[in-house]
Amino acid sequence: MVVRQALLQLRRLPLLVACSGWLMGILWAYWLQVPAAWLALPALATILATALGWPRWERVGLLLLWLSTMLCGAWRLALADPRHDPLAVLNLLRSPAGAGELLVRGEISAPPVLEGHARRLLVSVEAVSNDSGLHWWPRHGQIAVFTSGSLLDDPYGPAYGDEVVLRGRLQPPLGEGSPDLQALMAFPRLSVRHHGGNPVLALLYKLRFWLAMLIGRLLPQPEAALLVAVLLGLRMPALEPLTPLFKVTGTAHLIVPSGFKVTLLAGLVALPLHCLIRRKADDWRLLPAQRRRSQRGQWLLCLFQLLVVAVYTVLSGAGPAALRAGLMGALLVLAPRVGRRYHVYSALAAAALVMSWGDPFVLWDSGFQLSFLGTLGIVLLTPLFSRPLKRLERLPAGTSVVEAVAVTLAAQVATLPIFALTFAQLSLVAPLANLLTVPLLELLLLLGVVLCLLGVVCFPLALIVGWLAWFPLRYVVGAVTLCAHLPAAWLSTAGWALPLPLAWSYYVALLIALALGWRLRPQWFLSPPAYGLQRTEIGRSVPGRGPRHRRALVLGVQMALALLLLLTTGVRTLLEGQRTGLVLTVFTLAGPSGETGPAIVGQTAQGRLFVIDGGPDAAALTEVLDQRLPLWQHHIDWLALSSPLHSHLAGLLDITSRFAIGSALDGGVLHPGSAYALWRRTLRTRAIPYQTLRRGQVLPLENDLRLEVLWPSSPLHRGGDEARNNALVLRLITPALRLLLLGEAAQSSYALNGLLTAAQDAGPLAWGQEDVVVASLPANKPPSPAFMRLLELLHPSLLVVNEATNRSSGRTQTSSTTEHDQLLTPVTQRITRTLLLRPSAAFSLWEDATAWSFDTTGP
Fold first, then answer.
1. CA distance 231 to 239
2. For an engineered disulfide with 297, which of 155, 277, 331, 715 has Cβ 3.0 to 4.6 Å away?
3. Of 493, 489, 233, 449, the residue nearest 243 (C-alpha)
4. C-alpha 39, offset from chain centre
5. Higher pLDDT residue, 179 or 217?
6. How do residues 640-682 score in pLDDT, each as one tens digit?
7. How far does CA 259 lie from the centroid of its chain?
8. By C-alpha distance, which of 534, 538, 543, 535 is closest to 301?
9. Which residues are bridge partners to 108 per DSSP?
10. pLDDT of 577 above 50
């Protein structure tokens, strides 16, 4: 009886049978490597048999349907399998022709992705040459290309749709990823031939990056990076330290595309429009023409929602998880308009069929696996986990607690082997972390949409909304961080060496357990649960909505707490701003490759802000600024670059695009690199005033505060180490302080001798005593004789040394504290005190009308 009832239900859901057979056929064909020619005739025969047997026989019809779709899925994969294609790039790797350096021509088929501090490009190969381009041979397949860079949208770098030529060596792909990825190239020589691709997709990808930069201008980091990930599914560098925390707490779905977000967004878009076309109680009195007009309005709303879902899918990156979410969201919008009931199992099966038909290898993508199995587990297992917790629904907010815990457990059980194999970790605090963060997802999406719209229409008003959005974002960061640092929050499976058959055994055991439960309670599995979708018609209800008064109360409490936090922050900032003089902090920031560089942040007595250099990492400088500036501080009065070296410039590229800059200063460059050219381009694009400084210029910052330019001279020196020979040397003069900023010029004998000559000729460098000298010195070399002579001339009370390391040799140049102290011994014998700033250390200085004092933090 139970079997017959199950067969009757399956005949009503043929998509489930077809999807299971299709997916099984893809896996079977990949393992057995069956040629496509062997599968064509059997597939056609079973399709004809299914067409004849489906109306007549109940069991045989289902079996024939499953068998025909399995053969069709196997045939589809055999057509796409590169192992059967002699022109595939995969076969080139196995031949002697692919062993040396190659020229590869292809087109970038996806937007760049940041992985660490490199850009990952997906290139569809068209042709290959092994004789420097004299002859080209056609090849097919996709390869991953890693290029240097830490910017998502680099106008001087390759982007989606560009036809590129790569020169390098092909390598086998790392790990066991998608079989569709046939090779990789690590940091090849790359040239862009011309721009192409789909113009609509290219425009939407540009819009995606632009919206991410807009949010970065409205919010501090890492809250801005979190909102960008929640709304757009885009990983910014500032989110990298938080990404492992989201993974170990089981909340990674918050920062990746999901069907829940698509449904929420479509519902939020439809709510203000639905009231205009909703049915009224007296609609039965309307004439047929008036009813058709009302139906046209409903169809227009449906088409608008479909457009929103399609655009949001592309803005989310159009990855496998985003496409699955977009397809299911489109079916959710379309089903009520065509008079059909939305069935989540059928929608999930349809999305899997469409995606695997376009690309059978999507089944090997971890994002698709987590998205597909997580959604299936939520709709299938949530009732099982919610039933034991049913008594908790009587408590205040008990329904929300039971729903969050049940949904989290269901998704975790369904994706347990995938997480263990892909991320080598299992979260034990996922129910708690999701209970604390998921209820705010709808609010975060709403605030993100409002911020983007207001940022285009009225930027000052968007700043105010950004202050309100900061509180829930900060709360999510704090909650995830707290859960990640709880004792036994997660287990590492890195050393367990889990075999793939064990994962399959897990799912077989899970299916057996579900089959036994199905035999006892079949109604639990044949109808979609009420959790997450209270109604199937978007616009009348948004997923997860509770009573309106409860939601209004929660939103009111959040806004009140946000205003209270803003008031507290403002009072604290005003109290800290009562200083009567200059406040200056010198940092030594560390980059991803061990490279270090300086950054100087200063604030005058009247609250004006200036930044000199940005260090080698944008995320490090962003963290420094956002920790020290109030939420409403989005203006930097002066931005100076002392040297075009990467260790000084990388951080400035980010804040130039995020902050409003009053004036940009540098000493000019004779032979600019790509990073410096990008910085100047950003200045021109944002219409930031720019000034080139030369020796002898004086910049009045305030009444008793001025900045003197001591170097470089005019014209700039050609040859040698131009970045250091022409580095800016500045002197900051206040009534109680004389501060000399030598920077990279401390490593240039040419610049130091020029300063000594100017001093002897009674130039702008006076013979008075300097209070503080800040210099960048190498970590493994003693100071030059010219630097020692300059110190004897200046007699500073304090020397602050930025420990400089570089990446030119491919390894970090470091030395122990004892070794560096020995190198600086000649210096310490000539001055009162020397401070060595190692990576992540800072030197802070306060000045008033009569004296100055300082403090240090870090190692």
1. 14
2. 277
3. 233
4. 43
5. 217
6. 999 998 888 888 888 888 888 999 999 888 888 888 888 888 8
7. 19
8. 538
9. 123
10. no
Sheet of 583-590: strands edge to edge? 690-692, 660-666, 635-641, 609-612, 596-603, 583-590, 841-847, 852-857
The torsion of the CA quartet 506, 507, 512, 518, rounded to 10 degrees, works out to 130
Backbone angles phi, psi at 545, to 5 degrees: -75, 135
Q: Which two tokens stand for residue 699?
A: 């910049």
Buried b (16+ CB within 10 A) or exposed e, 231-270: bbbbbbbbbbebeebbbbbbbbbbbbbbbbbbbbbbbbbb
**Tokens standing for residue 370:** 């987590």
- Tens digit of pLDDT for each residue in 68-123? 888 999 998 888 888 888 888 888 887 777 778 889 999 998 888 887 678 888 99
Q: Is the peptide bond before 288 cis (omega within 30 degrees of 0)?
A: no
Q: How many CB atoms lie within 10 A of CB 111?
A: 24
Distance between CA atoms of residues 759 and 137, nearest Å: 66
The whole-chain average pLDDT of the chain stands at 78
pTM here is 0.81
pLDDT range class, residue 226, cuts 50, 70, 90? very high
Nearest CA among 709, 705, 706 for reference residue 745: 709
Tokens matching residue 533: 């979708």
Angle at 474 between CA 420 and CA 463, to 5 degrees: 130
pLDDT confidence of 522, banded at 50, 70, 90?
low
3-class DSSP state of 809: coil
In this structure, are residues 420 and 498 in contact, taking their beta carbons and an 8 Å threshold?
Answer: yes
Q: Rounded to an integer, what distance in angstroms lies between the CA atom of residue 334 and that of residue 341?
A: 10
